[in-house]
Each structure stands twice: as C-alpha cells, then as structure tokens.
Amino acid sequence: MLLVLSEAQRGDLGCLQRAGAAAVGELGRLAVELLRRGAAPRACEAAARKLNIDVDTIQHGIEGLTYLLTESSKLMISETDFQDSIHVLGFSDELNKLLLQLYLDNRKEIRRVLGELAPKLPSYHNLEWRLDVQLASRSLRQQIKPAVTIKLHLNENDDQTAHVLQTDPSTLLHLIQQLEQALGEMKTNHCRRIVRNMK
Amino acid sequence: RFRFCGDLDCPDWVLAEISTLAKISSVKLKLICAQVLRDLLGGSMEYEKILKLTSDAKLESGDVKATIAVLGFILSSAAKHGVDSESLSSELQQLGLPKEHASGLCRSYEEKQSSLQDSLRAASLRLSRLGSVCWRVDYTLSSSELQEVHEPLVHLTLTVQDEQRGSTEAVPMAVSADKFRVLLAELKQAQALMNTL
C-alpha cells in the first residue's frame, strides 16, 4: 500500500534534501521525541542554530517527518512500499536509506503510542461490598431482608468514578451465574477456533 | 484449600514467595512482620529498616517488595477470615514455611489480631456518616400571617460526611414541635431495637 503525500507535505520534506544527512538524523530524532512527549520549541531552535537553517524550515521539516512516520507506522507498510512512497520526493539514495532506517527503528514504539490514543471504555479498578440484613423499618418491624451493597470503582480516562449498587442475594447469584456463563464461552469450540486463528 | 485464604486455593504468587520468606532468619522475619503490621494498622512502615533486615539474606529490591506484599496478604487475609494463630501456623507450614518462621509470624499476628480486625472493620464499605448534630430551640412570637403565634420551633443541622465524594455536607432543617415529637419517638424506638441486637 503506497503512501500519498500532499503538495504541502512534499514541500516540507523537500527541505530535508537541502539540509543533508546529518541534519536529517537530528530532525528524525526530534520528530520521534515530538511523538513521544509533544512539542519542544526550544529543541527546534537549538537544532536550527546548530544546523544553520532557519527555525521555520526546521519546524516544517519535523512536521513532514512526523506525518511520514505516523502514517507509515499506522498502516504498517512494508519496506518496499515505504521506499516507493518516498521515491516520489526525489531524494538521494543515502537519504532514502536513512529515512527507511528511521521508520523501521521507531515503528514499534510509534504503533504503541498510537494504540494508546484509541477511545477507552471505563475499566474495572476495585470492588467493595457489604452484606446487611434489614431487621426493622419505620413501617414494619420483625423483618429479615438481606441486601448486598456494592461500590464499583472504575477508571475512566484517568478519572476515578465510583458507582454504588444494591441488590438482594438471589439477584447477586443470578449475576454470578451469568458472569460464569460468559467466562465459560471462552471454552467453546467456536471461541477456541477464533483464538487459535488470531495467534 | 486454606482457611486463611477464605477456604479457597492459595494464590500462586503467595506460594512462590514462601521460599523467599524462608531465606530470611526467623528473628528478622518477626521484626519485618512488626513493620508490616504497623503499616496495616495505619501507621507508617520504615522501609529502610526492612532493607537493613533483609540485607543479610541478600534479597534484591524486587524480592523485598514481594516479601512485604506476601506478609501483608497473609496477615490481613488471616484477620479477615478470623483464623486463629494455631491454624495459621499449621497452614503456613503446610505451604512450606519452616516451623520457627511460622511460629514467629503467628506470634506477631496473635498480638495484633484484634486491632487488625478493628481497623478492617473501620475500613469496611460505608456510604455516608453522621458527623455531628447541632440544634437550637426558638419560640415564634408573631408573624406576618398571625399576630399571636407562640409556637416553639427546633432548628437542626446535621453534618453528613459523604464517603463517595469525600465531602462534608451540612443539612439544616426547621422542625415544628409536633413533627419533632414524632421524630424523637421513632428514633427512640430504633435505638431500642439496636440495643436488643
């Protein structure tokens, strides 16, 4: 699968040819840092001074590189496809090899970072429970009414929420039975076949 | 099936760490237990002391943390299920802990068992708590509706601690004499019921 680069992106990356191999190495490092930690304007200025290129060109170059790396990692394109995609930029062979190496070295990490960007459903954190028996109320004395109070702690995008639920023992048993059935589904032939094929 | 695990199988990680516990001398293990118990009871654990105590056994930092975790689990789980120290000692020996280590551990456990259970009881799920009750009795002389009112009025402010949000809320209310009499009577009945339990 080939990557399609727009005019603007080609312009951004075009500066890399003029900058030379050492500069490309430096910009590549900055691009990966940008993906790991976010924008670092001071690092860009320092690089601009060191390489004797103006800051805007450096910024554009890094943005272009970042786009190239994330799109390639996202689509998990093969080496040949990557080489064909950047061939259109008309870089020297040495530069092409450098870019390919940059892609292959950082692919796994970039994919990991991209994986964390997907929206997440609230996930289980902790469960507290309590078993009570209601013996009497204002309206009725001499009762025996057991109840289970549950506090479910969830992690929602680094936010902790808690939900308080109450149920009687028979509903709780039904709940446990349903959950055990759900776990049991993993052992059916159908699920086993899918899991085997995924591995 | 172990009683201190709540009549369930012992977790694999606990089994794995029993051999680490055996590497420490039984005297030092008892002192480490004392530190772990302090932490479980809400005090502060002195990690440097534990590091010094485990230095003889040449444990790595991962092993030290595992030791603290295993001791914490054994002690709190035994307290949770109300296991007496004799049964705990025999069950730990069944898992492979040497006799002196088990008896040292269980002696520390026995001393602090009821305090542990008290602190676990206090940590149990609680939705809200009554903080305090403030009251004031007024006597209404007159109002815009009626010239001679002459009615007593009770102002109550209940301070409620919401465990869910961790905040304190003040609930003020004004209660007429009749309503207050009913409230008091019902609460006294509830109190009598609680005393009979």
UniProtKB/TrEMBL annotation, chain A:
Residue span, COMM domain: 123-190
Residues that span the membrane, as ranges: none
Pfam family, one: COMM_domain
Superkingdom assignment: Eukaryota
Protein name per UniProt: COMD2 protein
UniProt organism field: Probosciger aterrimus
High-level lineage: Eukaryota, Metazoa, Chordata, Craniata, Vertebrata
From TrEMBL, chain B:
PROSITE patterns named among the record's database cross-references: COMM (PS51269)
UniProt domain COMM: residue ranges: 129-197
Cross-referenced InterPro entries: COMM, COMMD4/6/7/8
A Pfam match: COMM_HN
Coiled-coil boundaries: none
Protein name (record): COMD4 protein
Species of provenance: Probosciger aterrimus
